[in-house]
Design a protein that fits this description.
mainly alpha, 13 helices
Amino acid sequence: MHLQGNARAGIGLMLAGMLMFSLNDVMGKWLMGSYGVAQLMAVRSLSALVVLLPFLLRDGVGRVWRVERPALQALRAGLLAVEGIGFYAAVAYLPLADVVTYWLAAPIYVAALAPLVLGERVTAVVWAAIALGFVGVVLALEPSRDSLTPEAGIALLGSLAFAGAMLLGRKLRATPDTVMVGWQIVGALIGSAAMLASGVGSWQPTPPRDLAALCLLGVVAMLAHILVNRAFKHAEAAVVMPYQYSLLIWAIGFGALFFADMPRPAMLLAAGLIVASGLFIARVSRGSQV
């Protein structure tokens, strides 16, 4: 398959972004063993904001607030705050591969909601692929009295919030990367501050080594978001989206290496159905753009 330079750059950026997200996931799971999600999100957001600030100053801080459709920007930032909190809360209790499987279902939710939110036409074949993906989600949840845990529910809610943010990102694709990331960092900071102020979260003393790790988490997450946003600017979503599934390979490998987590057969089957559905939807979408 011949790829133009922009497509190759987009694919490379997406693969690099998925690796960065995987490193973020490993660090977040390790840190959640000692700190609450509110503290983790607060330090993560502050450190990311410090790193991003020079770029915002270069472009003009006022540009962050003078954007098209600020209500949608704020809604996207809020959804990403819910997504981040949900992810770290879930990964504290569930294996990395399990949580990542829920998140990889987000493109399926996007495809299902696209006719309603974006006015896009969805064919019967794509609806069949969406249905297959939802079967995978049900298998991942393993709905029973014992397996349908609050942690699984949090993971599902977080992945739905992520899908909503993806939909809004498609509406706001003309917004500069730094502005998009700046809004979502501020949203996460407000969300974590609200949790701490309300008593939902607590603040633990932080040794210098852990503080450095928490700050590094913010930098890694920010770079991951910038890489993914840049990937979508270099190539069509249908070209780069399939490569996000490399995240599952990293999750299985890192989960086994660092936490001795081996994925359950039911979760592997669920992941296979979700990935197959997502790849098919991406292929059909790409064909319709030719």
